[in-house]
């Protein structure tokens, strides 16, 4: 072969990744590194034996070509190149038992069109069988020509379910997943991943079927843009999902099972039914949801049973056309093995949430943060706009610290249901929506939980029976309350918990007032009128 022809073949090999089976037989030896223990120089053929251009393999259908390309790779794995001009695929692209890298020339250039909706007959499925065999997918468009009504995902990644300490999970970058035309068809899921550790999904554009003017997310549409499952203790851990743009999906992200340490950052979902949902965390720790923008029909972020997580700096909207009841952030419970797991020790900070109080044009109520399954969380410096209710603490004995939050254009009030051990401070305004400026004490009660309420003014409420009040509970140090008597039957005791001027009880007359400051150990009188 002439020298110029040799050069052209070598260049083609370096760019087009021609498979070994398709290489010329008269290529000269290349003086590269020696083979271990043989002393023989490797041939140029050997250099490219782990690279396969899918178009060079036989088969009328792309799935057949892909299967042949996978089979041609050595047991240690290799690269399958997917160039422009590939034929349609009427079956799933499968490569199992090997570390494999799928490489294209970029979304819109290297495009694979799947034509079948039969179960298991569309999408790409990779199962390397060993956590030491990483997977890479880069630079592709995966298009479905039909609605995937039988559950096919564009990309399925599956590792073994045994626990792993090997953080060499899959890398999926610069990939477009969509339907035909202008979002006329849908995948059941974008990425469907199982038991992945140390993974990275970045720079993805995932689109389902256009929802048109729907007021609720349609049942016939994409499920999760990204679904992550931890099976049978195998789990999923310490992965990052960033720069994902999801459109017309039920979920941007859906997490299930034994997972922890997942980072969801800088993602967008518009319009979707829900942003990120993890319904069954069962006490697993460590999640990070930050700097995302979700515009949703029903829920923006819902975490049930997880702990030690962060929900910070997100911009969350109720979709303008939604007629559904909407919740911005949900801290809920998960039940497993007869145990109820609460969402605990999480930080919800610096988020901005926009609802539609009164249902807006389409209908449905709006609750900013539903912590009816949350306990021991820090909820701070969030801004809530156009909510019916800002918070729902479920009427349970939860201990959440709620501080420095702001509510604007509230329809009904701060709390749909209080948390009996909530500690609230510096929330603005003190009364929102239809909230009263004061809270009546319970009739006949000797003690009252003042910390659960955002308001700082309380009324006595003993119209017919004499009652001596001995304590006011659940308030942080520095909390100041004012008690106004609307009856003549209430006495405030002077005791170890309430220190009154003069060291004697105060029997209040109607219209009297008493202001107390919580020092931590006791309440100190700072003013009265009688």
From TrEMBL:
Organism: Methylobacterium currus
Name this polypeptide is given: Depolymerase 2 capsule K5-specific C-terminal domain-containing protein
Claim: Transferase is one of the keywords in the record: no
Signal peptide: 1-22
Domain of life: Bacteria
Keyword Cytoplasm: no
Keywords: Signal
All residue ranges annotated as the Depolymerase 2 capsule K5-specific C-terminal domain in the record: 460-524
Pfam families linked: Phage_depo_C (PF25692)
